[in-house]
Amino acid sequence: MSVITISRQLGSGGDMIAAHICEQLNYRYFDKEMMVEAAAYVGLGEAEVIDFTEDRYKVQDFISRLLRLRPRTIKEVIFREDQHGVVETLTLRTLDEKDCVSLVRYTVERAYSEGNIVIVGRGGQAILRDKPGVLHVRVIAPEETRFQHLRAVGMSGVSEIKLKIRESDRASAEYLKRFYHIDWNDSELYDLVLNTARIDTASVAEIIIAAVRAIEQKVA
Length: 220
Fold this sequence. Notes:
CATH topology: Rossmann fold
Radius of gyration: 19 Å
Mean pLDDT: 80
Strand content: 15-25%
Number of strands: 7
Largest sheet: 5 strands, parallel
Number of domains: 1
Structural class: alpha/beta
CATH architecture: 3-Layer(aba) Sandwich
Strand order of the largest sheet: 2-5-1-6-7
Helix content: 40-55%
Distance between the termini: 10 Å
């Protein structure tokens, strides 16, 4: 049983690498569907499951950070509540950032208990830090490589792509700092740091797979 967490920079090819690993090892790819499955065990319906990740996080403005305002509302959902098996009422529930992060943490921990899974983002390197059988990977690339990759997959506009890269980096760093108290760039959080500028994504995936097999042999 092994679990792989992948923290990747936007445009570094981390998602392609994760998909390749899942295909080669027959691992599951952690996604919202898995969150819905896990949430059912604690009585939450699909409408209440918000996959609140670095990708969805919006950097707080200066005033919010300065005043430390209450967590921002992510979504308001209406769910049905059974009243003693007789009356069904509709209740409005407000889900804030902390609620959503707690759900992500719970589902990541549950996924770890099942094993054979690849978790991309979502603070996996913090939630599963020091857990046995976990390989923590960071996938990076220079800005120019990331720019070319994003343009190749359909993004347009030089300034727009570069702005997206900077905003994504800033949001990921703040998300992990705020909710998990870690430095996204701290190399000690990772077992492997791989640069896709000179190594293609398929080869990077094979390096990770070799590391996983080494871990499994050691555990065995």
